[in-house]
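New to this. Look over this protein:
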Amino acid sequence: MTCRSAECAALKKSNLKEMYIVRYADDFKIFCRKRSDVDKIFIAVKKWLKERLKLEVSEEKSKVVNLKKKKSKFLGFELKAVRKRNKFAVESHMSQKAMKRVTENLKIRVKKIQHSRDKRDMAVEINCYNIMIVGIHNYYRYATHISYDCEEIYGKLRIFIYNRLWCLLKKSGTIYRKYIAEHYGKSKRLMLISDLTMIPVSYIQTKFPRYKKVRICKYTREGGEGIHKTLKFDEDVIKTMHLLAKAIPYVRSIEYMDNRISLYAAQYGKCAVTGEILWIDEIHCHHKKPVSQGGTDEYQNLVIVREDVHKLIHATKQEIIIAYLNKLNLNKSQLQKLNKLRVMAGNPAI
């Protein structure tokens, strides 16, 4: 018997009400098919929260909405059920409040680009602007009509950018950042300042989400094991990933910043040589082929290691090599991994 048929059988043989809960932190939605079920569940949930958890429900934020007639907001999105032939489908947008916030934050970034002290400072600010755009796209791309929303933001932002940066903008040029060239290179709205590129907020397409298996959940032992088997992260690693995502970028490409987080996740937060879990201030992202020798910020050319290992990879003086070897006390397998990275960096094996 499938999960869906089991649910149907349970509903027919009991007084249970069909409902679906979507939750993130303390924000949640309950979806039902019948208005009569909604009214009963709404009262029951408020009563349960008050009596069991001693929590008062905000009457302003908590309400019953018919999605076929009105929109409902959730985590920066607006949802509505619209008829498609003989059934209903979800139509989603970025919420008006989120659009206003995004527009204002991007304007602040444009002002910082305008008031840059020098070219180096401008590169940092443009990088911050681009990272913000990529973050917006990655978060809101699951909205079915996000392209319309980002087009509206672009309309409000375009004149502001030209008024502030018109004397710096170039009509054409080369896109040096590989990530931008691959993901945004086809856009006709790319803005160039010297050899720096500003990503257009309007260049985005909807991405359909992948659904996880029904059995993977935290409410059963089997479901919980499925979650841990999929993630394999402990709490410290997850916290560090959040810190990496929020880190203020220095003069590095978006590709480098994104790949650093991806590598940390792929290595489960561990140093590629010692296997130790690394905290935020211990993480070093090493270029296997040095930038000075033509190495890029591609995922395949990067590896996460601890600071001492990174110094040992590049060390050339014998006394420094001995000092770090004594400090790290590497076993045979770890030393082989270290020597592989040293050779790739152009240094002899130890």
Summary: The mean pLDDT is 83.
